[in-house]
Amino acid sequence: MSSIRYAELGVRPLINAQGRLTRLGGSIMAPEVVDAMIDAGHAYVDIFELQREVGRKLAELTHNEAAYVTTGAATGLFLTTLACMTGTDIELLAGLPLIELPKNEVVIHASQRFAYDPAVLLAGARFKEIGNAEATAAWELEEAIGPRTAAVLYLAGEVNRRSALSLEETLEIAHRDGVPVIVDAAAQLPPAENLWHFTRDLGADLVIFSGGKDLRGPQSSGLVVGRKDLIEAVFVNGAPNPYVGRPMKVGKEEMVGLLAAVERYLTLDHAARLAGFEAIVQGWIAAFSGIPGLRPSRSWPNEAGQPMPRLLLEIDSDVLGFDANDIRRALWEGDPRIAVGHYGTKHLYLTHADTDDGARGIFVTPDTLEPGEEHIITERILSIVRTGG
Ligand SMILES: *Cc1c(COP(=O)(O)O)cnc(C)c1O
Predict the structure, then answer these.
(1) Once rounded to an integer, what is the mean pLDDT over residues 363-372?
(2) Region of poorest pLDDT, from 35-49, 83-97, 345-359
(3) Which of the residues 98, 149, 229, 231 has the least number of beta carbons within 10 Å of its own beta carbon?
(4) Counting atoms of ligand 1 from 1, which one is nearest the CA of 157?
């Protein structure tokens, strides 16, 4: 957790017990990824050739027709939307962003609108929303699809299901009209099998993953897998081609780094990893049980819907004399700085300095930790409780 550069800059590294969040640095790259990026940085290459060969290898590894490396899952949303609107029509593409595309509607469940969806609008698409917070009917999707429909966008993962139709039903209806379905599965790893499940097993046309989350690839990387013709369209829309995708260029180091990350991910013993996370959470529960004012429990799945446990530590402020905001702030301000999640508030992006009346506890996540950091967290929380916040 040390860095000479960060120290020189006066920026404090932190223990991330909150999640794979970009604003906390995303994830720590696996050593194999760093090595691959350094290696790739030593030589010039034809970037088109590299993108194609890395894509071919990623497709093979993930049992997909084709694959493409982006600068992140959000860029994946942007480029897949463009691909579904323009195909490989360079005349259309060259007119962007000043022309209105003939197919510029993306159908989305109203309940699945999300923080990253402006990337779709940035591509020049409009959303056509279906359903509401309570329910969506099949006929709503059927009616929303028309001659201007470029794609249907679907957020994968049970926690994101909300009141949406199932992905299976969505695919069935969209495909009846030949409309492609883009699946945002940015955080839906593990299980590693999701790299091919949505495409090969369910028939999704394009699926997006973040490279900087559980894959522990380059922070600025993302993976798109799917149909060969649509990945070809992503390729044409993407950098270094001189169209609207050009600002989101991906470097040779990220391409090779992401490939190394996926190779590594597929060899991990995910059952053993999960058992390790369970042991950490059980250790925390044991350490915080029986302390007046603290109520520890195992929470599952985590905030992104990944099948991984985390600790929920509910705080009784009447007993302790300080509340969940105070403990979150004390962890953030102490040394080393520790980031944890918040429980009971509606705020998605509560920062550690914020106070929210609804905050009733903290979430502490094991899967983002470096070895041994779980003990530092235990000690710090016990010390805060002992000294009164
Ligand atoms: C994290 C996330 C993204 C953005 O991923 P980046 O790789 O940081 O661009 C997009 N969609 C969903 C659902 C996410 O969870």
Answers:
(1) 97
(2) 345-359
(3) 98
(4) 13
**What is the 115 CA–ligand 1 centroid distance (Å)?**
9
**What is the Å distance from ligand 1's center to 323 Cα?**
31
Instruction: Return the best residue to mutate from 18, 77, 210 for the ligand 1 pocket (most ligand atoms within 8 A of CB).
Output: 210
- Are the C-beta atoms of residues 309 and 302 closer than 8 Å to each other? yes
Task: Output the six-digit token pair for 218.
Answer: 């380059």
How far apart, in whole angstroms, are the C-alpha atoms of residue 156 and residue 166?
10
Nearest to 378 by CA among 254, 275, 294, 302: 294
List the structure tokens of 370. 């470096």
pLDDT number for residue 389: 63
Shortest-distance Cα residue to atom 13 of ligand 1: 186
Neighbouring residues of 204: CB distance < 8 A, sequence distance ≥ 6: 154, 167, 171, 181, 182, 183, 198, 226
Find tokens 């990387």 and name the residue. Answer: 221
Query: Which of 110, 109, 89, 113 minimizes the C-alpha distance to 101?
Result: 89
Q: Is the CB of 131 under 6 A from ligand 1?
A: no
Instruction: Give the Cα separation of 73 and 260 in Å (integer).
Output: 17
Ligand 1 contact via 222 beta carbon (within 6 Å): yes
> Is the distance from the beta carbon of residue 217 to the nearest atom of ligand 1 less than 6 Å?
no
C-alpha torsion sign, points 349, 353, 358, 364: positive
Q: How many CA atoms lie within 13 A of 234 on its CB side?
A: 34
